[in-house]
Amino acid sequence: MAVTVLGISGSPHRHGNTETLLDSFLDGARSAGASVEKVVLKDLAYSPCRGCNACHKTGDCIVKDDAISLFDKILAVDCIAIASPIYTMGITAELKGLIDRGQYLWARKFILKTLYFSDDHIRSHKGLFISTAGQNWDHVFDGAFPAITAIFNGTGFEYYDNIIANNMDEYKGIKNHPTALKDAFLKGQKVVAVIEKLNSEGGLKTGNQMKANEA
Ligand SMILES: Cc1cc2nc3c(=O)[nH]c(=O)nc-3n(C[C@H](O)[C@H](O)[C@H](O)COP(=O)(O)O)c2cc1C
Q1: Residues in the chain with pLDDT values less than 50
Q2: pTM of the complete model
Q3: How far apart are CA 126 and CA 17, in angstroms?
Q4: In angstroms, rounded to a whole number, what is the distance separating the alpha carbons of residues 172 and 157?
Q5: How confident is the model over 24-79, as pLDDT tens digits?
């Protein structure tokens, strides 16, 4: 079965620097034989977490909107690439709003203990963060990493790699960056090969994401 890759574009700017970098990664994954899908957050309808804590009792979110079907998709794929430009030293509101909505998965893992990801599952499920920033500062992405780490942890993905390009102001766009698009394409090819190898080493794809009470 083909490796499945989901790209999540968190930029409100269609076909801008960040989505273009994501597209290059997805093209690489597709060229390596993966089944690829891209979701654009600005085209979905979901509201921010209400903080009602109903999920602490039920493990489900009471708000039934596009965030829930997107989390269903995330939980079903082998690889996710989450893309966001740096907005005011962090991720976009669209992406942060989505990540907060995953609180019901946190409740399942840590309060209700009905969701558990085995080490094998995490090892064979790879998450990548894709980002661009205007400034030429090495640390300009630092404010984004904790929330990205949180969504990978919450959904059972190993934080595999970053594909990040700063200094967009100087380059006047990702298309003028000397290496970023090619690097993203190659990383798309590479991660598919890595997952294929892991999956061939002992059926890691089956039965690893389970409810804790089935373990
Ligand atoms: C509201 C807003 C806030 C931004 N804040 C920062 C920032 O704090 N640091 C930075 O380096 N670039 C910042 N930028 C620049 C973007 O990160 C940069 O232009 C990025 O490549 C845009 O990607 P996009 O084309 O996908 O929107 C900001 C841009 C916007 C629109």
Answers
A1: 204-215
A2: 0.94
A3: 23
A4: 33
A5: 999 999 999 999 999 999 999 999 999 999 999 999 999 999 999 999 999 999 99
The DSSP call for residue 112 is: I
Q: Quick one: tokens of 56?
A: 């602490």
Query: Atom 15 of ligand 1 has which residue's CA nearest to it?
Result: 134
Residues 6+ apart with CB under 8 A from 181: 20, 21, 24, 174, 175
Q: Is 78 helix (H, G, I), strand (E, B) or coil?
A: coil
User: How many helices (H) and strands (E) are present in the chain, helices listed first?
Assistant: 9, 7
Q: Are 141 and 133 in contact (CB under 8 A)?
A: yes
Is 85 near ligand 1, meaning CB less than 6 Å away? yes
- Of 84, 88, 141, the residue with max ligand 1 atoms within 8 A of its CB, to mutate for a pocket test, comes to 88
Chain length of the chain: 215
